[in-house]
């Protein structure tokens, strides 16, 4: 997402617009130097340098020698936003249960436009070996969890043989699509209503997911439990059993 220019100038003129462009440049990368940020944003070098100095002072960005990375304040705010997300809060007990039950990496994702955004990732020692991360996004039609999301979005115009099959079976399962030797099973959560879509998935070895039908059942159980938990007021959640 890029900030839009206000007025008829050649580029963003507002302080917040420039800051938004600079922050967007860090999506998917850990560190950037000044030249890389200038190239990514299209802003003048002097404007980028001045904005970065202000952002460093605010702890939005951290400078390490010649490189910049997102600062602690942005990490703190991102963590607070994730903690406040009602879907994530409702899902966490079931996600942890699903990880324990399957031994697989577990993802919680939502649909934004045509992209998947990961709200949570639980995987223990396995997690660092898989590139997905909380807050990252990818094209929905290129992933198993994305196909589950598209199938659960409740929009009849989203149609393909793969999506139609997932919509019928309420489960998506693919082998070795994104990593050799690994499979993914994803199930829509919902219906969420208001055009929203959410899904939960497990990612593990073909040898495990391909032969153990209980894994598919476990994902379906977790998705159903998350949806049920979303239907009650937050004050009543503690009174309901979590997935065991």
TrEMBL record:
<dbReference type="InterPro" id="IPR036390">
    <property type="entry name" value="WH_DNA-bd_sf"/>
</dbReference>
<dbReference type="InterPro" id="IPR036388">
    <property type="entry name" value="WH-like_DNA-bd_sf"/>
</dbReference>
<dbReference type="InterPro" id="IPR014757">
    <property type="entry name" value="Tscrpt_reg_IclR_C"/>
</dbReference>
<feature type="domain" description="IclR-ED">
    <location>
        <begin position="73"/>
        <end position="243"/>
    </location>
</feature>
<dbReference type="GO" id="GO:0003700">
    <property type="term" value="F:DNA-binding transcription factor activity"/>
</dbReference>
<keyword id="KW-0804">Transcription</keyword>
<protein>
    <submittedName>
        <fullName>Putative IclR family transcriptional regulator</fullName>
    </submittedName>
</protein>
<dbReference type="InterPro" id="IPR029016">
    <property type="entry name" value="GAF-like_dom_sf"/>
</dbReference>
<dbReference type="InterPro" id="IPR005471">
    <property type="entry name" value="Tscrpt_reg_IclR_N"/>
</dbReference>
<dbReference type="GO" id="GO:0045892">
    <property type="term" value="P:negative regulation of DNA-templated transcription"/>
</dbReference>
<dbReference type="Pfam" id="PF09339">
    <property type="entry name" value="HTH_IclR"/>
</dbReference>
<dbReference type="Pfam" id="PF01614">
    <property type="entry name" value="IclR_C"/>
</dbReference>
<keyword id="KW-0805">Transcription regulation</keyword>
<dbReference type="InterPro" id="IPR050707">
    <property type="entry name" value="HTH_MetabolicPath_Reg"/>
</dbReference>
<dbReference type="GO" id="GO:0003677">
    <property type="term" value="F:DNA binding"/>
</dbReference>
<keyword id="KW-0238">DNA-binding</keyword>
């Amino acid at each position: 997402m890029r900030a839009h220019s206000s007025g008829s100038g050649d580029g963003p003129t507002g302080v917040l617009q420039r800051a938004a462009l600079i922050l967007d440049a860090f999506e998917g990368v850990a560190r950037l130097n000044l030249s890389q940020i200038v190239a990514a944003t299209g802003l003048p070098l002097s404007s980028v340098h001045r904005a970065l100095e202000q952002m460093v002072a605010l702890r939005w960005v951290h400078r390490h020698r010649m490189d910049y990375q997102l600062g602690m304040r942005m990490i703190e705010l991102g963590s607070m936003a994730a903690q406040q997300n009602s879907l994530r809060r409702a899902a966490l007990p079931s996600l942890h249960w699903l990880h324990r039950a399957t031994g697989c990496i577990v993802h919680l994702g939502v649909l934004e436009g045509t992209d998947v955004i990961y709200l949570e990732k639980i995987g223990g020692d396995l997690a660092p070996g898989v590139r997905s991360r909380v807050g990252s996004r990818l094209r929905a039609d290129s992933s198993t969890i994305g196909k589950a999301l598209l199938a659960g979005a409740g929009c009849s115009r989203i149609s393909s043989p793969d999506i139609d099959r997932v919509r019928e079976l309420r489960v998506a399962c693919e082998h070795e699509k994104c990593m050799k030797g690994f499979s993914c099973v994803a199930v829509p959560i919902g219906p969420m209503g208001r055009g929203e879509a959410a899904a939960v998935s497990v990612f593990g070895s073909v040898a495990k997911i391909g032969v153990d039908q209980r894994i598919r059942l476990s994902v379906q159980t977790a998705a159903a439990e998350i949806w049920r938990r979303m239907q009650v007021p937050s004050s009543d959640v503690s009174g309901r059993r979590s997935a065991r």
